[in-house]
Specification:
FAD binds at residues 221, 244-245, 258-262, 275-282, 296. The protein is α/β, with parallel strands linked by helices. It folds into 2 domains: 5-192, Rossmann fold, CATH 3.40.50; 215-333, TPP-binding domain (Rossmann fold). 31% of the residues lie in helices and 27% in strands. The protein contains 9 helices and 17 strands. It has helices at residues 21-35, 49-59, 77-91, 102-115, 161-167, 228-237, 245-249, 280-286, 315-333, and strands spanning 5-9, 12-13, 16-17, 38-44, 65-70, 93-99, 118-123, 125-129, 132-139, 144-150, 155-159, 179-184, 215-219, 240-243, 270-274, 291-296, 309-312. The protein has a 7-stranded parallel beta sheet, sandwiched between helices. Strands 14-13-15-16-17 form a 5-stranded parallel beta sheet. The protein has a 3-stranded antiparallel beta sheet with strand order 8-9-10. β13, α6 (228-237) and β14 form a beta-alpha-beta unit. 50% of the residues are buried.
């Protein structure tokens, strides 16, 4: 048994893994290499041997072990927490990394409760200092940045995917050397008290997922309910569409697109707020954005306080012009 391990939850939807896997594993490899810890990637769910084997080959030297766990439902956080606990115990894990999504944060809480471990969700960085896992995160709607040292033997961290990508080195080319291990767990009654009766796939879209997109265009009250300009600019930039709570409450956009403290937390390289006032609960969900562009007719809108570029204009006029200019420049350069 190794002296320690970093365990990484591979977020997947049968049978494809999501984009969060690579940056989390690369960062785990970087952290583990400095401490002499191995890296165990955990794939929870049924078979798909061919897909798992393909994924193992792509990880190269980053992962020592891929642990495929049967007997747990990858759609239920309580069941995932039990699966991760079993793997963490077996590997003598010092750190468990999960993506900081809705599901990931709930899984982190479940695992921490099961193991009595310290947990940090919504983290923007992870380092190991003097043997302790230290996670950085923004709090109070992004107005403060904190560093949280976990003093328990096991640290559970839900990490923002873009932060992991920025902090980790490029993933080495695959060599297929990772060892595949199988693990079966029997979830306790409390973890299986909820049963999934029906699963319905979300409509397929070519846009990236809101939580993982590098560019997000968010529409607010200033759109007047017309999201065509928001969607057009997002498509021109290859980004995702988001919305404020007002826009979703009014039915202008699905609630799944809500950005904020009670919605999706994002940290794209580029955030464009179209007609967004910048209420504190919204800023709490986008404060980690690298570059913030805000468009509003009100020069005193709170969003301008955190904007890198502030434009006083009507979004219904400006957004179509921006989208056309983006496409024109891409056409000339391509």
């Amino acid at each position: 048994m190794s002296v320690g391990a970093v365990v990484v939850l591979v977020d997947h939807r049968d049978p494809r893994w999501r984009g969060s896997a690579a940056p989390l594993l690369a960062l785990a490899h970087e952290l583990g290499g400095r401490q002499g810890w191995s890296v165990d990637a955990v794939w929870v769910g049924p078979g798909h041997d061919e897909e798992v084997a393909t994924w193992v080959a792509s990880t190269g030297p980053v992962v020592q072990h891929v642990v495929q766990v049967d007997g747990a439902d990858p759609q239920l956080p309580a069941s995932l927490g039990c699966a991760l606990r079993a793997v963490a115990d077996d590997a003598a894990a010092r750190l468990v990394l999960v993506p900081s999504t809705f599901e990931g944060r709930e899984v982190a809480g479940q695992l921490a409760a099961l193991t009595g471990s310290g947990v940090v969700v919504g983290a923007s960085s992870v380092v190991v200092e003097d043997g302790l896992v230290v996670a950085g995160k923004a709090v109070l709607a992004g107005s403060w940045r904190t560093r949280c040292a976990v003093t328990s033997p096991l640290a559970v961290v839900a990490l923002d995917v873009h932060a992991a990508a920025a902090a980790s080195p490029a993933t080495p080319p695959g060599t297929g050397e990772a060892e595949v291990r199988r693990h079966r767990v029997q979830a306790p009654a409390a973890a299986s008290a909820v049963q999934v009766l029906v699963r319905a796939a979300r409509p397929v879209t070519e846009r990236p997922s809101l939580a993982e997109a590098e560019v997000v265009v968010v529409g607010g009250r200033g759109t007047g309910g017309d999201f065509s300009g928001v969607e057009d600019l997002a498509d021109a930039l290859g980004g995702a569409v988001g919305a404020t709570r007002v826009a979703t409450d009014e039915g202008w956009a699905p609630h799944a697109l809500q950005v904020g403290q009670t919605g999706v937390t994002i940290s794209p390289r580029l955030y464009v707020g179209a007609g967004v006032s910048g209420a504190v609960h919204h800023r709490g969900g986008m404060a980690a954005s690298a570059t913030v562009v805000a468009v509003n007719t009100d020069p005193d809108a709170p969003i301008f306080e955190v904007a890198d570029v502030a434009v006083v204009a009507d979004v219904r006029t400006l957004l179509p012009a921006l989208a056309a200019e983006v496409r024109s420049r891409r056409h000339r350069s391509g």
